[in-house]
């Protein structure tokens, strides 16, 4: 159904797509210039902590907010504003340039909206993740899968070392997914058996280390956060054994990826649409069409594996739907880049050329 949506509607001319992208970028800049007056307070929650460090405060010394604060302090106030705004415009341009039809224009707007809202109106930790996504996506356009993966390893490892250590786990999962997708079926079965055996053999303290942060985060949302905990949830079981780990993981997969089942309202439906677009861009694997050279980036499979890795790791500890959407939206550009591959693959065998709408 999503593939049909992306391929639906009239074919849009390149000039029309560029014009739409320019108008969206101008609208973004207008909102960015007045963000404090127009956007809800919770958007600035993490940015305010970073601003404390930029201003010379010591409240968050030694934390990831301190590391990010040093980076933005080096840019200066004006430099930080220019950096975020320029990154936002580049993100919009790269995402909307993937548009071919009216349906894909609508879908790409759905993909970019959460990222702009959560990550590109303030200078935050996730703003830097968007920068990494842009760099990896640009690499994927020119480099093969292996070299794109190497670029991702360097960038993710640097981010993990300085800001969020779990990004090392994300890039390891992405490399494993890349290898798994290329392995023959017998080797896949062996790999799954070995991975299952390794997880069973882990000491119970590892399960606690991986999943207990969710309970800690939910406690904060429930008892201390002024913004509430509308979609937060605790682990079903104490994360102290393999069976409990599997049960908690399966529960989080349902809670975070099927929000419409637990939050049947406008926000839940909107988040469901966004999450579905991101996940469906990466799975199942689709090979590039043999008869087109421009359908996808050369390193597109790396982008798909990174999406899957972000999702897999998020299932371990994300405490609520808003946090999951915010973190997943930082790599929404990967999905926007990947969708043309799926629509081209579906249309390649039989679709006739279509007349475009708008000036050539």
From TrEMBL:
Transmembrane intervals: 20-39, 74-96, 102-121, 128-144, 150-173, 185-202
Keyword terms, alphabetized: Membrane, Transmembrane, Transmembrane helix
Name of the protein in question: Glycosyltransferase RgtA/B/C/D-like domain-containing protein
Organism for this UniProt entry: Burkholderia orbicola (strain MC0-3)
């Amino acid at each position: 159904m999503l593939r049909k949506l992306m391929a639906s509607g009239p074919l849009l001319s390149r000039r029309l797509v560029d014009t739409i992208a320019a108008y969206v970028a101008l609208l973004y800049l207008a909102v960015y210039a007045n963000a404090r007056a127009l956007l809800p307070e919770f958007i600035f929650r993490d940015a305010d902590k970073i601003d404390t460090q930029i201003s010379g405060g010591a409240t968050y010394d030694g934390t990831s907010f301190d590391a990010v604060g040093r980076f933005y302090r080096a840019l200066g106030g004006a430099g930080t504003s220019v950096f975020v705004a320029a990154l936002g415009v580049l993100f919009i341009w790269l995402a909307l340039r993937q548009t071919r039809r009216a349906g894909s224009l609508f879908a790409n707007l759905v993909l970019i909206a959460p990222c702009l809202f959560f990550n590109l109106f303030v200078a935050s930790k996730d703003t830097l993740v968007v920068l990494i996504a842009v760099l990896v996506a640009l690499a994927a356009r020119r480099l093969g899968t292996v070299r794109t993966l190497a670029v991702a390893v360097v960038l993710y490892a640097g981010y993990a070392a300085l800001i969020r250590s779990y990004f090392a786990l994300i890039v390891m999962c992405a490399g494993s997914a890349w290898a798994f997708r290329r392995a023959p079926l017998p080797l896949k079965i062996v790999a799954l058996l070995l991975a299952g055996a390794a997880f069973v053999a882990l000491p119970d303290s590892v399960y606690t280390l991986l999943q207990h942060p969710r309970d800690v985060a939910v406690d904060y949302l429930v008892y201390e956060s002024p913004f509430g905990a509308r979609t937060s949830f605790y682990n079903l079981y104490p994360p102290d054994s393999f069976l409990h780990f599997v049960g908690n993981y399966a529960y989080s997969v349902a809670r975070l990826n099927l929000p419409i089942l637990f939050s049947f309202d406008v926000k839940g439906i909107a988040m469901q649409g966004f999450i579905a677009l991101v996940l469906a861009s990466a799975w199942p694997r689709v090979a590039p069409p043999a008869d087109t050279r421009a359908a996808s980036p050369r390193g597109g499979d790396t982008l798909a594996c990174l999406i899957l890795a972000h999702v897999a790791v998020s299932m371990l500890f994300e405490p609520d739907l808003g946090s999951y959407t915010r973190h997943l939206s930082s790599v929404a550009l990967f999905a926007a880049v990947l969708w043309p591959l799926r629509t081209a693959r579906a249309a390649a065998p039989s679709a006739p050329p279509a007349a475009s709408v708008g000036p050539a």
